[in-house]
Amino acid sequence: MSTINDIPVILSTLRTESDPQLSPFFYSFEDLYGRKLWHQLTKVLDDFFKTPLSKPVRTRLYNQFISQFKYNINQIKLIEFLLYATNELQDPQESLTYLEDLLEDLSKKENIDKSQALLFIQIEIARNKLRAGDDVESKEILDEIDSKLEKIDSVDLKLNQSYFSTNAEYYKTKHDYNNFYYQALLFLSTIELDELETYEQQKLAYELSVSALLADKIYNFGELLTHPILQTLQSTEHEWLIKLLNSLNSGDLNKFSELLSNLSKSTILKESEPFLRQKICLMTLVELVFSKSIRTISFKDVSIATRLSLNEVEHLVMKALSLGLLKGSIDQVEQTITINWVQPRIVNTTQIENMKERLVEWDSNVAKLGQFMEENGKEIWVD
Question: CA-CA-CA-CA torsion for 223, 227, 232, 234, nearest 10 degrees?
Answer without folding.
Answer: 70
